[in-house]
Specification:
Oligomer: heterodimer
CATH architecture of the largest domain in chain B: Orthogonal Bundle
CATH topology of the largest domain in chain B: MetI-like fold
Strand content of chain A: 15-25%
Number of strands of chain B: 0
Distance between the termini of chain A: 55 Å
CATH architecture of the largest domain in chain A: 3-Layer(aba) Sandwich
Structural class of chain A: alpha/beta
Radius of gyration of chain B: 27 Å
Largest sheet of chain A: 5 strands, mixed
Number of domains of chain B: 2
CATH superfamily of the largest domain in chain B: MetI-like
Helix content of chain A: 25-40%
Radius of gyration of chain A: 21 Å
Order of helices and strands of chain A: HHEEEHEHEHEEEEHEHEHEEEHHHHH
Helix content of chain B: 55-70%
CATH class of the largest domain in chain A: Alpha Beta
Distance between the termini of chain B: 61 Å
Largest sheet of chain B: none
Number of helices of chain A: 13
Structural class of chain B: mainly alpha
Number of strands of chain A: 14
Strand content of chain B: under 5%
Strand order of the largest sheet of chain A: 10-9-11-8-12
CATH class of the largest domain in chain B: Mainly Alpha
Chain lengths: 339, 366
């Protein structure tokens, strides 16, 4: 009870202060003035944001920030990264410590409505899945009745798991661990039949096994986890730039423009391509240069390049496009027209 | 004629001297001890050969990519490739000499203090406390004297661990002493109450909460354009937290001084400060060296908690490296490396405290 009162007090205070901060000046102006984008990322998530050997940040979430920097400054390197934990990510955004939160954050109504922030789009459609040993011969999650399941504690994963098995009237025995590392080690040791986590993470966990080929990811996705960048409310201009930076990458993929062929595409007669590359000037009103999308694709790449390089076939994770394929290829990724 | 010929001295029985004697006396002097020895040997047999096999014999030492590791043993290549990051974080390589110089200066300041006959000790000690922090600050942060500014968000690895630990220790000891004296000031009730409140408040909350508040709540109380350095917030939190613990350790020492010492100091006509500084504190601090070092060692290990506020200390940078897609599956090597580094530092501190105790020994020990 005492805890609840304290929590209420803290969250009321948080909201009150966040509301105050939200109207206190345009983020976009501040970003232009300081000359770089301050980007909140995960302090270490394979394929999404992780520093490499030289300390350079790499990953899908990182590339979103680089795209925004390319649009605003014409230089994708004008980004500074703030590694954040799951608990401090929203505060960092609300308090103005960062300009974009690009940290594998699930878009939900409570976050959009209640935290004074807004999600600009979906960079990665994730969802909870199952990893299982091949030798068990199970091909579908619906055949998992009576299974022991390794799961990380304190995440929504645990709740989704119970929901799924409850709905399908199946029984399961959860084996709960604190970290992803422990979970995968116990899966390997045979303490559970199945390991459950977000699909993007399952592929990373699979590589940690001594024999990655001995396990498969089941096709079922039991929850919706659309991950995307978020910004503070109160600066629609900034919101638009972040939103359209992602759309530019998706649009480029749809039109077949990549960082490699972009310069030859400049001669294209296709009006869509001309509008995207800025050779045909449109009044986009974003407050950035006309060749903003050209800079993004040239320096960061189109969506497909970003995906394959970080989590897809060009990376050790080898995640297939799945739901993240373009809308005209059976996926969910869809960008409004740039015109 | 038969003469008495003394028999040559027999050597002592083989079972009570030499190596065998030692073994008998120490390892097999009773059936229970014998059984314990055999059990311990068996456990060592179970644990040590596989460990040596993994860490040394089957381990991979050279290479630069994860494919260079066979996975049969430890992959030290992973540590080798990331070593610079584990030591310096993201501190620019071209500027890392500044970190090295800062540490070398610290050693240069501290080493003469160990030399018995060194005469200018007080001056050097004062310089260490007053001049050194200023020099170190300018060297590490830069932005003046032609040095490039290096933001604290680029600090990391063992270097960051040392910064937090050293700043915490250096700030906590004097603060703790003042707090302990304040808490014992019976004739100043307001000061005493303040000190008690401070100590109990900070001792009553876990360090993780302090760090969390400094990182999550504090930004809300500041104007939007004012961003308070994250590392500085953590440093202040750690220093205040540790000073409360230090205060209680020092108070233990103050209480251990017999009343006669206070009265003797009074009788000599010493005022409060001179009595405290010249008579009471030297004895009290000597008494609680184990406690002080205990707190320091705990602090050194507690610095790893800063990873929950997204600072890349030694452990944090190792955990980040663990999720590099090109190097997945080598977390054990990383954690073993972290454990070794922490152990070396903590063991070093512990040995130093024992040396200090022996040096300051004045015959009161039993």
């Amino acid at each position: 009870m005492k805890k609840r009162i304290l929590m209420t007090a803290v969250s009321t205070l948080t909201l009150a202060l966040a509301a105050g901060a939200a109207h206190a000046g345009a983020t976009f102006d501040a970003v232009k003035k300081k000359g770089f984008v301050q980007c909140g990322v995960n302090s270490g998530l394979a394929g999404f944001s992780v520093p490499d050997e030289k300390g350079v940040w790499k990953g899908m979430d990182v590339d979103v920030c680089r795209a925004v920097a390319a649009a605003v400054f014409g230089d994708s390197e004008k980004v500074k990264y703030t590694p954040l934990t799951a608990k401090e990510r929203f505060t960092a955004l609300q308090s103005g410590e960062i300009d974009i939160l690009s940290r594998n954050t699930t878009w939900t109504v409570t976050r959009d409505g209640g935290l004074g922030i807004g999600f600009t789009g979906v960079t990665y459609y994730d969802g909870q899945g199952f990893l299982i040993k091949k030798k068990l011969g199970v091909k579908s999650a619906l055949k998992l009745n009576g299974a022991t399941v390794c799961v990380q504690s304190g995440t929504t994963t645990e709740l989704n798991l119970a929901d799924y098995f409850g709905v399908h009237k199946m029984k399961f025995k959860p084996v709960v661990y604190d970290t992803a590392d422990e979970t995968v080690k116990s899966f390997e040791a045979g303490r559970c039949d199945v390991l459950t986590s977000d699909q993007s993470q399952l592929y990373a966990l699979r590589i940690k096994l001594a024999q990655p080929e001995s396990a498969v990811v089941l096709p079922e996705v039991i929850s919706k986890e659309p991950l995307g960048p978020a910004v503070r409310q109160g600066d629609a201009e900034w919101f638009n730039i972040v939103r359209w930076s992602l759309f530019a990458m998706l649009g480029a993929e749809e039109m077949g423009i990549s960082s490699k062929n972009i310069d030859s595409m400049k001669d294209s007669k296709n009006p869509d391509v001309k509008r995207l590359l800025g050779t045909d000037v449109i009044k986009h009103g974003l407050g950035v240069a006309d060749d903003w999308a050209y800079k993004i694709v040239k320096q960061v790449g189109n969506y497909s390049e970003v995906f394959e390089r970080n989590v897809g076939m060009g990376s050790p994770l080898k995640i297939s496009r799945g739901q993240n394929a373009l809308w005209n290829k059976g996926g969910l990724q869809y960008a409004p027209p740039i015109r | 004629m038969a003469t008495f010929r003394p028999h040559a001295d027999l050597p002592p029985p083989a079972t009570s001297s030499g190596a065998l004697g030692w073994v008998r006396q120490n390892l097999f002097d009773s059936p229970v001890n014998g059984a314990m020895t055999l059990l311990a040997l068996y456990l060592l047999y179970l644990a040590v050969p596989p460990l040596v096999d993994w860490a040394l014999i089957k381990a991979d030492w050279s290479g630069s990519r994860s494919e260079d590791c066979s996975k049969a043993g430890a992959c030290w290549v992973f540590i080798g490739v990331r070593l610079n990051q584990f030591l310096y974080g993201f501190y620019p390589v071209a500027e890392q000499w500044r970190v090295n110089l800062t540490i070398a200066l610290l050693v240069a300041f501290v080493l003469p203090l160990f030399i018995k006959r060194f005469v200018l000790k007080q001056w050097l000690g004062a310089a260490l406390l007053v001049v050194y922090p200023i020099v170190a600050y300018h060297l590490l942060v830069g932005g003046s004297f032609g040095l490039v500014h290096v933001e604290t968000s680029k600090w990391g690895g063992l270097f960051l661990t040392l910064v937090i630990a050293v700043v915490g220790m250096v700030a906590a000891l004097p603060l703790g002493i003042l707090l302990a004296l304040g808490r014992r000031a019976e004739n100043m009730p307001v000061l005493k109450a303040l000190c008690v409140a401070f100590i109990e408040l900070w001792r009553g909350v876990p360090l993780i909460t302090v760090l969390f508040m400094s990182s999550v709540m504090l930004p809300f109380f500041l104007p939007e354009d004012m961003s308070f350095d994250k590392l500085l917030r953590a440093l202040i939190g750690v220093a205040l937290f540790e000073s409360a613990y230090m205060a209680e350790v020092v108070r233990g020492g103050l209480q251990g001084i017999p009343k006669g010492q206070y009265e003797a100091a009074d009788a000599l006509g010493l005022g409060y400060w001179r009595a405290t500084v010249l008579v009471i504190l030297p004895q009290a601090l000597k008494l609680v060296i184990p406690g002080i070092v205990n707190t320091f060692i705990a602090l050194f290990k507690d610095t790893s908690l800063v990873l929950i506020i997204g600072l890349f200390d030694l452990l944090g940078s190792i955990q980040a490296a663990n999720s590099d897609t090109n190097w997945l599956g080598f977390s054990i090597e990383g954690y073993v490396f972290a454990a070794c580094v922490y152990w070396v530092f903590c063991f070093g501190m512990s040995r130093y405290s024992q040396w200090l105790e022996a040096k300051l020994h004045t015959g009161h020990k039993r």
